[in-house]
Amino acid sequence: MRWSVLHRLRWNHKIAVRNS
Q1: Looking at the record's lineage, which domain of life comes first (predicted)?
Q2: pTM above 0.70?
Q3: How far is CA 16 from CA 1, 5, 12, in A?
Q4: Where are the beta strands (DSSP E) in 1-20?
């Protein structure tokens, strides 16, 4: 559950970087 938050944050950052 805890890693879920980290993974979600990391995924969001990856998408943002890719979107940019």
Answers
A1: Eukaryota
A2: no
A3: 23, 16, 6
A4: none
H/E segment holding residue 20: none
Ranges of the chain whose pLDDT falls below 70 = 1
d(CA 4, CA 2): 5
CB atoms within 10 A of CB 19: 6
| Spatial distance between the Cα atoms of 2 and 17, rounded to a whole number of angstroms | 23
